[in-house]
Amino acid sequence: MARDVTIPVDVGPAEIAQERKAPTPAQRDVVFDIDGLTVSYGSTTAISRVDLDVYRNLITAVIGPSGCGKSTFIRCLNRMNDLVPGARIDGQVLYRGQDLYADGVDPVEVRRRIGMVFQRANPFPKSIYDNVAWGPRVLGMKKDLDGRIERALTDAALWDEVKDRLKKSALSLSGGQQQRLCIARAIAIEPEVLLLDEPASALDPIATSAIEDLMHELKKEYTLVIVTHNMQQAARVADLTAFFSLEVGESKRTGVLVEYDTTDKIFTNPSDQRTEDYVTGRFG
Question: What CATH architecture is 30-279?
Answer without folding.
Answer: 3-Layer(aba) Sandwich (3.40)
